[in-house]
Design a protein that fits this description.
The structure is a homodimer of 345-residue chains. Chain A has 345 residues and is an alpha+beta fold. Chain A has two domains: 13-161, PurM-like, N-terminal domain (60s Ribosomal Protein L30, Chain: A, 2-Layer Sandwich); 175-332, PurM-like C-terminal domain (Phosphoribosyl-aminoimidazole Synthetase, Chain A, domain 2, Alpha-Beta Complex). The first copy, chain A, is 28% helix and 25% strand. Chain A has eight helices and 15 strands. In chain A, strand 6, helix 3 (114-131) and strand 7 form a beta-alpha-beta unit. The interface between A and B is large, with 78 and 78 residues.
Chain lengths: 345, 345
Amino acid sequence: MNDRVRHVEKITLKHGAGGRAMRTLIEEIFLNGVPTDDHDCIGLQAMDDGAAIRVGDRWLVLTTDSHVVQPPFFPGGDIGRLAVAGTVNDLAMMGATEVLALACGVILEEGFNRDDLVRVQKSMAETSREAGARIVTGDTKVMGRGELDGIVINTTGVAFTDSVVRDCSLRPGDVIVITGTIGDHGLAVMAERHGLQLAGELCSDVAPINALVRAALVAGAGGVVAMKDPTRGGLASALHEMAAKSGVGVVLEELKVPLTAAVRAAAELLGIDPLQVANEGKAVLGVRAEAVEAVLAALRSHPLGRAAAAVGVAVDERPGSVILDTGFGKRLLSEVEGEPLPRIC
Amino acid sequence: MNDRVRHVEKITLKHGAGGRAMRTLIEEIFLNGVPTDDHDCIGLQAMDDGAAIRVGDRWLVLTTDSHVVQPPFFPGGDIGRLAVAGTVNDLAMMGATEVLALACGVILEEGFNRDDLVRVQKSMAETSREAGARIVTGDTKVMGRGELDGIVINTTGVAFTDSVVRDCSLRPGDVIVITGTIGDHGLAVMAERHGLQLAGELCSDVAPINALVRAALVAGAGGVVAMKDPTRGGLASALHEMAAKSGVGVVLEELKVPLTAAVRAAAELLGIDPLQVANEGKAVLGVRAEAVEAVLAALRSHPLGRAAAAVGVAVDERPGSVILDTGFGKRLLSEVEGEPLPRIC
C-alpha cells in the first residue's frame, strides 16, 4: 500500500487572470509538443496578441479570445461588444487594422433569457459595423442549468497585414505611449458586480480601436515599433511582457498616466492599483522618439484617443523590469500574479 | 400596475442540439443585422459548416466550434481530440483539406486537475499532427467553482482552397455516400456518461478526416458536389439540411447504412435511432453518379473509410424531405428537434 497522499495540482482563478501565473501555465502546458515558430509563422511560442502566418507577400493574422465577463451587461458595454472589440483589438495590436472576418462561438446556460441574447447579438452586430468587421460564421452550444454561469462568447478574427507589429521590439530610447485613460473597464465591471455606489460614474472603455491604431501607424510611418493592449493584468502586465520580451527596462512615469476622476476615486476606495486593472479600448505603443509627436497628434485627433499620452521610456537598465517613477522616487513595479478580480473580460 | 405576467422566453437544451430548434434560433437571432452573403463571401446566411471568403483567386475558409462534451474523456477519445478533429473536419467539409492554422480558446473551472489539462493538451497536439495542422494561437480563461462544469474548448480553423464544396449543391440523381459507420461517437459518450455495461464495446469515431476527404475529392475529379459532417443531430439532420438547401428530396436506404454491432445493440437497448446520433469522424458526400465508383474505391482504400457505402440518392420528389426506405416500405424521416442527449460534442 502506498500511504503517501498524491498531491493533485489544481487550476486556480489566477491561472486565467493575465499575470505571471497564467503565463507560466501556458509555457508549462500549452507549448508542449507544438511546432516551434519559424520565419514564416509567429505562433504560440511568441505569446503575442495573436499569430501571424506568411501568405505570399503578406501576413495572415489570427487571434482568439473567450469572453466570460460577469455580469454580461455593465456600464459602457456588454459581453457582445466586448467579444467583438477584444478580438478586433488583438488583430490591431499585430498591425492588422482591417478585419477580414470574425467567427463567433456562443455558449449559453439553459434558461438564459432570449431577450438578453437578442440584446447581446445586436451589440455584436453594431460593434462589428463600427469596426468595419463582419461575423461570417458561428457556433451555438447550450449547457445545462448550473453547468455554466450565463453566457460565454468566443470570438476569433482573421486579417491580412503587410507588416506585423510585435510586442517584443522595444529598444532603449523608445517612448511608451498609452492611447487614453486606464482602469475604466475593470473598475466599471467590479463596481457593477458588487453594487458599489460608484457604479454610476464608472464606465467601461470597451471599443474597437482598429481605426485609432491605423491612424497611429500611418502617422508614425514605421515609428510605431511595438504594440500591446493592456487587458487582463492591466498596463502593468502589458509593460512587463513588452519589457521582458524586448530585453529592455521600462520606466513608467506614474503622474503622466491618464486616469479619470472616477477611476482614481474607486481605485483608492477599493485599494486597487489602476495599473493592474483591465482596459478594453486602449493600446500601449512603443514609438521611436522621432515619431512620437506625429503619433500623439494622430491619436489625439481621433475620438478614442483624446487623452493619449507619453507615459514612459524604454531603457537599457534592468531588462525585463518596469521601473515606476512616482514623482517622488523610483521603485520596481512588481509583476502581479493576475487581475485583482476574475471574469472582468 | 400591470398585473400581466410577462412571458420571458428562455433558452433550452434543444437550442444547442443540432436540430430544427437550433436552426430556428440561429435564423431568428444570429442572422439579424449581419451583412448578407455575396459572391465573395459565403457567410452566416449560408449556415454551412464554415464560411468562405474570396481572397485573390482562392477562398479562405473559416470555421469555429465550441466543445462542451461531458465527460471530457470517453472511449475512443477526449475533448482535446474532439476539439481539433471537429474543426479540421468542418474545414474539410468546405473543400479545404489542408489546414493553415488553428486557434484554440480553453476555459477551465477553478479546481480542474492540472494532470487532466496536460492530457487534453497532449491529445490536441497529437491530433493536430495527425491532421497536418498547427495550433498557432490560444486563450486561457478560468471560471469559478460551479460557474463552469469542467472544461470547454473552442477551436477555430483557417484554410485556403481553390474551390469550395457546399452543402446545398445536390441534384436529383446524385448519390449519397457515407464514409463509414454511424452513431459511434454519440452512443460511446452516452454509455460512458451513464455508466452503461455496453461502454466497453462502444468507441467514438472521433478523428480528423481531412486526408480521407482529400482522397475522395481527388478521386471524384469534380464529382463530389456536396459535403456535410453528420455531427449533432446525426445523419438525419445532415441529410435534412442538405435536402432543404439543395431543393431536392433524399431517399435513404436504411439497410445500407453501416452500423457496428455494438451501436446496433446499444441503440436498440436505449430506444435511440442511430440516424439521430452524432458522429465525429464521418462525412456525408453528395456524388455525381458517374464518380461514385471512383470515390468509394478511394474512400475504402483509406483506413478511416473502410466501411464507406452508398446509402441513398437525391430525387426530385418532396424537396427538403428525407424519405427512409426501410427495406419493407418507405416513410418520411421527420426532422428531429435535436440530439437525444446534450453535450455529446
